[in-house]
Design goal:
By secondary structure, this protein is an alpha+beta fold. The chain folds into two domains: about 1-120, 2-Layer Sandwich (Phosphorylase Kinase, domain 1); about 120-335, Alpha-Beta Complex (Aminoglycoside 3'-phosphotransferase, Chain: A, domain 2). Helices cover about 40% and strands about 15% of the residues. The protein has helices at about 10-20, 65-85, 130-145, 165-175, 185-195, 195-210, 250-255, 265-275, 280-300, 310-325; strands spanning about 25-30, 35-45, 45-55, 105, 110-115, 120-125, 130, 220, 230-235, 235-240, 245-250, 330. The strands form four sheets. A five-stranded antiparallel beta sheet has the order 1-2-3-5-4, with helices on one face. Strand 9 (about 230-235) and strand 10 form a beta hairpin. Helix 5 (about 185-195) packs parallel to helix 10. It starts with 9 loop residues before the first helix and ends with a strand.
């Protein structure tokens, strides 16, 4: 998140880190990055840590209830720990356990707190060009992840779904009245109003495609969001962060992000896993992502908010999401 959170003070964070992780904080700097969570870089006894406060109101794929969301979040973080330390997946950036061996703690009613190793490297960004050799490396990492399902006993199972769908459908039903949540509410209402029939058609098409999808496929543990923004390029290769979306699902839940329409990567994936890739499933997960983003941005801008870097970003993202299919990776010329 670009703007610092309300209600979380640095001194409260320092006390929690000392009590639950035995980290005596020398310095704590807010890092304005990401979405749905707030981040700090902490220095303690010469070591650096990446501290994350997850907003339990912004994870509809886990639950709409804060307590249930925290339990779901803890399960996903524990899955990341199992993948890193039991399955031996070195690219998984998993939380550091608390003194009581938990992956996260509750920080007030709205937030949770987790501590991750600080990864030295170059963070990626959504939509950046990726060279073919990097794509091959990433397909290899995902194949390794998908083959590690046995270590993901605590991961939820999840099929293609539109997170926050009820919120989006309610917004489409309420386009006739004024939205007064904040400075971007009416702008969002008019934008959705211009495209309401198209969006409703996307929802219907999603349901029809989901009903036709072949279901007898081997499930795999998937990250859920392996886009460039969740990658860090390090001296040892790529590190993959943000495991709150991990779930057992179809492999296409991850793979659609690499689909450039040519199918050039899938021979490699099939050779590594023995699994074929279904273009229909790929298209369905792409549509699910687009609709879930629409639901998230609409919910934020329709509800109470003020003008900030985060709401300005959400307004821009809403228009972009309506205008074009998501494209996490762009092809780049080979060096």
């Amino acid at each position: 998140m670009r703007s610092a959170p309300d209600g979380i003070r640095s001194e409260d964070l320092a006390r929690a880190l000392a009590r639950h992780w035995d980290l005596q904080i020398d310095r704590l700097d807010y890092l304005p990055e990401g979405g749905g969570a707030y981040h700090w870089v902490a220095e303690a006894s010469g070591a650096r840590w990446f501290v994350t406060a997850d907003d339990l109101d912004t994870k509809p794929w886990l639950s709409s209830n804060r307590d249930a969301t925290f339990l779901g979040l803890s399960a996903t973080y524990r899955t990341a720990m199992d993948l890193r330390y039991e399955a031996g997946l070195a690219f998984v950036v998993a939380p550091r356990a608390t003194l009581s061996a938990e992956p996260a703690i509750r920080l007030g009613a709205r937030y949770s707190l987790a501590v991750f190793p600080f990864v030295e490297g170059q963070p990626g960004r959504w939509g950046e060009p990726f060279h073919s050799h990097d794509r091959r490396r990433l397909i290899g990492l995902l194949a390794e992840l998908h083959r590690s399902t046995a270590a993901a006993a605590q991961a939820p199972s999840r099929g293609p779904e539109v997170a926050g769908r009820e919120r989006l459908e309610q917004a489409l039903r309420d386009l006739g009245g004024e939205w007064s949540g904040g400075p971007f509410s009416e702008l969002a209402r008019r934008e959705l109003g211009r495209h309401a029939q198209v969006i409703a058609g996307w929802l219907d098409s999603f349901d029809e495609s989901a009903a036709r999808l072949v279901s007898d496929v081997e499930p795999a543990v998937t990250h859920g969001e392996p886009h460039p923004g969740n990658l860090i390029r390090t001296s040892d290769g790529f590190a993959l962060v943000d495991w709150d979306t991990v779930a057992v699902s179809r492999a296409e839940r991850d793979l659609w992000m690499f689909d450039d329409g040519t199918g050039s990567d899938w021979d490699q994936y099939q050779e590594l896993t023995g699994w074929s890739v279904d273009p229909a499933a790929m298209a369905l997960f792409r549509r699910a992502w687009r609709l879930s983003d629409l639901a998230a941005f609409t919910g934020l801008l329709r509800g109470p908010h003020r003008r900030s870097a985060d709401t300005e970003r959400a307004w821009l993202a809403l228009r972009q999401t309506v205008a074009a299919d998501p494209s996490p990776y762009r092809a780049a010329a080979i060096w």
